[in-house]
Amino acid sequence: MTIKQLRILPPFAIGRLGSASEPMDNYTFDLDINPADPLGYRQLKAQPTLIVDENSGEIKDEVTPPRLEFKHGGRIRPVAPFLEVYAITDTDETLQPLTTTLLRKHELNEHGISWRATVSNRKIVRRTGNHDDLIHAQTRWFSDHRSHTLAGRCANFISPEASVNFGTVRFIKPNQNHPEIRLRFTPAQGLIYGPDQPTDDTQAQDAGSDAYQISEDRAIYDRSKSWFGLGSPEHPASNQTLPPSLFAINPPAPSWLFDNVAISRGYFDDACDGFVEVQLALKDGGTLTAKARICAAPPAMAPDSLFVRTLADDLEQVINGPDVAPNEDPEVTRKRALDIIRRAYETVRFMNVAVMNGNDFKGRPALSLDSMPEEEAADTQRAIRPVMASGSVDTLAIMTLHQQVFAALQGGAAPWFLHLLRQPDEVADFTDRGRRKMPALMCGADNNYLALTWRQIDTIRKAAEGLPAPKPNAAAAAVQKGLTPKNLSAQISYEAKGNPISSRPVTSVANCCPGLEVDFRAVWRRLFKGIELREYDNLVIEVAKDCDAIVKSSDGGDLKPSQLAGHRLLRVVLPPENGGKEFLMMTPMWGPSSSDSEGKIRLTTSSNPDGMAAVEWSNALARILPCKGSMVRCDFSAEASDQQMALVEESDDGPKNYVSFLCEVQAFFEDDTAVISAALADAGELTQGLCSPWQNDYRECSCYYWASARPDYVNVEFTASGLSTGDNWMQRERSGSYVADDYADTRLLMYDELFARWEQALKFQIGGRDAPDETGGKT
Amino acid sequence: MTSRRRRSIPCVQGREPLTAFDRDSTGSKALVACHDVPSLPAVWLQASDVGVPLPDIPARTNPKDPNPQIVEVTDPVYSKKRPDMSWRDHLVMLLTSGAEVEHALMVQYLFAAYSINSDQPTEELRALVEGWRASILSVAREEMGHLLTVQNVLVLLGAPISFHREMMPWDHQFYPFPFSLEPLSIPTLQCFIYAEMPRLAEIEHGKIYPETPKLLAMAPGRRREKAAPSSIGPRQEWECIQEVKRDLAKRFGEDNVNADLHQVGELYHQIIDLISDPRRIPDSEFNEASYDMQADWNDWGRGYKPQPRELTPDGDIDEAAGARRLEAAPEFPSSMARRHAHVQVERAATRAQAVKALRAISAQGEAPHLKADDTGEPSHFERFVQIYEEYKALQKNDPSWKATYDVPRNPTTREDFARLNPKKTTYIPANLESAAAAHLFAQLFNQRYRLLLNYLAHSFRLGRSQPLHQPGRRGMVMHRAFGEMYHLKTIAGLLVRLSLHDHKNPKAHAAPPFELPYTLGLPLQEIDIWRQHRDLIAVSQHTCNEVFRLAGVSASFKKEVGDIGGDIYLNTLIRLDNEAQRWIGAILAGRS
């Protein structure tokens, strides 16, 4: 037997921030429906937890805790995932755990194993464009079993020694009971860093007297550099993220209540993303290596609920394509369709649907409250109006309706609501018809209304065409063929021993605007070799130095590839051997006609005269991924443009407005692995678009982004009126009377309070209710 | 299903009229009592004619014409008002009959759709019959819209709403065929086609269809393209009409078939004509303030309408825009099946709006087939014709092929009722040695049907006191109604997979009975309506629990229910009902 290759599983592990000294115990919940409580919250189950000896680095014990505790002493317990090494041998099709036993069979041992971790926080770089703002940490290759701190350093810190503690990595010492080769990543505490202290009193007033004060040991950014004060007239912000100004600001936030002034306070956090690598020295002097990705993210505050579209859904689409195979086992399709509906009501039950619908609230105009209709009104300059009929919206009623749909599908009814699912190219349809499609009331990665992945929609389509009658007593055909090198789905969803389910992509949101765990939009920017697109739309922001050699002209025009920065990617055309289909990267923006209830008009403004909106990459490029390694035709705007535009073909009215090039499609994953390619996103790039600090996001973004990850409506009960009542997750006093979010109501948690005491202020939700601080689910 | 024309029979003093059909399929003149006919008081029988037949309009067709045009007859025809009724009352009676006919048709269409067996020998056949089911369900959804629209007009007139199905003998002249639940078949489709097809009287050769027919008051400029053009051409449709007429005439008598008495469109024609007339229905009869009490498409439409059309910035139709985009649809091979329903729920505050609403729903299914593309969508008639032609083609290839489960006509959970009508109904036995599972699920179906009708009526009742645009119980009850529709769909799907354990026909399966309760009336007081809901939910839960109890007693029963996934569904239903009880409990407790 020969070890031919290595893999690290899971290929993408999420750490969750927290300052408690003891990491979170292992827990899980069934992804399948619980027959005893099919509509209930997912039952959290404590699992065998690996206890690591602090001194030796060995696993000294394996304990299943009697109860789950998400906090200790008011501090949140971090999720510190393990990453296991697997081997591909020449005698077995499946991946084998790399253990000391296997090593000895090859006359090797664990001393030939070494690790390295590379993580970055690029949030500042993303905003300033200044590479000196990169906060970067890389360990040396190590083989010992000590904890290695990921010390993030930055050229714009006050000194070379100053650093951000991004957490630790540790090579767990294998022993007799646990001979596997594994690494543990322990994320940071969720602390906030900032600029050094001002040298005079005037600077001390910048953020106001009530502002959160960065402690001296974390005041390490040189305030004379670009991040502090970004957004001021002296240092205007350019190349903004979407949404813009996702950072701690002066004057008091949010900016839209204060004349859109957003001046950076210079805060940043200890979140990061990057790679871990393992290296095995072979007897012949060669080495085998493998890598995986890690990131540090906020806690999963509603651990028993899943969002309707998760990172796992997007990755599933990357791996298996946007279309469900015609010969897929019907039970598999049915199960997946049921899961989508289940996650839909899991999401809805955390939304105050009446408020999110754009209804006036207790007489207060909806325009003053945070919701998608309010966002839409601001973006399109149309009068705000509720999405659904305003008299029919209530959280418990809408949740019940979803549950009834779920029950119908469980009973074998074919989905009848395919037409109600929003297609990915309908995200900018702001007619009543368009807005009422599902998922409703939520934002997608393109800042328009959320759509599911093509694959999720196609699952519903296949089920709607009628599946054979359910055979509940028959075992479903095996979906996974086991942990094999080619089974990327199994690798992505791999459950490493000791890892809570919140470390897996299934618990990460996908409609990233910007996201919580990662900004998945960032992964698509370099899909076309030599070209870099903006993460949230089709603007070319950079071209590679060797672009002219990599990208070929397709129509013999004068424009060179190296001149494409500032132009827009309008369309991608597949080669004939791949079907020759065309895919627009934009979609028209439609709104209702004010004079004709049966009509719709294109929504145009002076800055968007064609009335077009970019569509999010994950769906827009889904059918292009299979062309990896091939050249596809990319039609770019003939002129540079900071405005979105429609594609115009040549006609009697004028010439076409685009030029065509042939671009190579890069592979999404590293060769033969399930690791997102480093060519697509370097360390720090998957989190660079997120809020800085991330606590800002919990205040800034409402639940219409990720209801079951950032809840809105909690402790919900029925009332005599037939409607529901509950609390706003962000309200300080749990009165049972929901406080609507106008960003100024002092009954709600504000930014600086979150910065100062987020661990105490934010409450975990179990069963849709505030969990007591020290207890969670039971075994 | 029999399709018999019910002629109006003059009453003879002191004797019951021949209230049913003058001829049955054997050609003999027989008194055939329709089920649910109440006994009539003698005083009533002394009244004058209940109505008069429409005059026979001679066909002016040239049967050899290769390109016949199907056009609309626009002559007004009145059914005679009883002298002991006002015109308003007569109008309300017509509307109520209309509501009941819509309800009856909808239920019969649903039954036919639910009877379809998608477990077919090939994938192509499976997709085809699923397409038929989708198409018929679309029609049923649109009928629901018609039903709600008619209720709205009743509310406008200050009249009681009605979710009943049969109002014998008031409505008999308007029923296309006696109410009967039948699985999908060629004869069934012929009856559906007959009910929805254009008036037979006028099939003109070479006549150009008028642009503004009387029944279709479309606003100028509102022309739409057909979303899914029929694959059946005009010639084939005309031949289909002739064939249906011929076959039904053989079954029920030519005279019955040739008269236009029972086209549903005819009923609407009478209603529209009457409601348009200010001499007979003065303006004072319309209660404008009732507008907000009426059912609104925004609540009940569920997205079932065509895409908006593209307009220019000036608000004109954008002629340069391409065809309107079709919504995502399952990939059924039948072109009509890809066409989503267009549910029309129209409100009315004035006479003109009421007329417009009635014309709109009449045009959708019951009015003449339109060749001028003004409706922009296939009519019910077209959809049924397409299924009919496809069905015939398949049966021609394989006469033994069946599209449906072997389900009975008019299943019932009432043994006594089945004994009264043994030829027309099929009892689903309750004993454990027989079809106990089917009986319980059929019972559950009836219970949920009753809940649905209760919620529908309650939502209109709440319309009086609850503003439309504020969240309240009205909206919540409306959602409950939809939830019950989903349950009915599911339970029907389970029923048709349950055996009747008929030793004479082992393949016989059960089917949804759609039995009406003894009353659809709501209690006077609001609190009592909630108590009634609670009671109905409780008894439904009892039925579910009874299934589990018997599953614990009988292994074969347990297997039978488990094999169809009925246990999983009931488990979820019980939990949903538990939450519903909590909700109602909060309302009854006055908790705020």
Describe the overall structure:
The complex is a heterodimer of chains A (about 775) and B (about 600). With about 775 residues, chain A is of the alpha+beta class. Chain A folds into 3 domains: about 5-25 and about 45-190 and about 270-300, no CATH class; about 310-495 and about 690-770, no CATH class; about 525-665, no CATH class. In chain A, strands 1, 9, 10, 13, 14 and 15 form a 6-stranded antiparallel β-sheet that branches. Chain A has a 5-stranded mixed β-sheet with strand order 2-22-21-11-12. In chain A, helix 5 packs antiparallel against helix 8 (about 395-410) and helix 5 (about 330-350) crosses helix 10 (about 455-465). Chain B has about 600 residues and is mainly alpha-helical. Chain B contains 16 helices and 5 strands. Chain B has helices at about 40-45, 85-115, 125-155, 185-195, 235-250, 255-260, 265-275, 295-300, 350-365, 380-395, 415-420, 435-465, 475-495, 525-555, 555-565, 565-590; strands at about 70, 205, 310, 410, 425. Chains A and B meet through helix 8, helix 10 and strand 30 of A and helix 3, strand 3, helix 13 and helix 16 of B. Strand 30 of chain A pairs parallel with strand 3 of chain B.
Major sheet size, sense and barrel closure of chain B: 2 strands, antiparallel
**Amount of helix of chain B:** 40-55%
Q: What is the strand content of chain A?
A: 15-25%
Estimated helix fraction of chain A: 10-25%
Domain unit count of chain B: 2
Q: Cα-atom Rg of chain A, whole angstroms?
A: 26 Å
Count of individual beta strands of chain A: 37
SS element count, helices of chain A: 15
Largest sheet of chain A: 6 strands, antiparallel
Short descriptors:
heterodimer; A: 779 residues; alpha+beta; 3 domains; six-stranded antiparallel beta sheet; five-stranded mixed beta sheet; 21% strand; globular; disordered C terminus; B: 592 residues; mainly alpha; Ferritin; 2 domains; two-stranded antiparallel sheet; two-stranded parallel ribbon; 16 helices; 5 strands; 45% helix; 2% strand; disordered N terminus
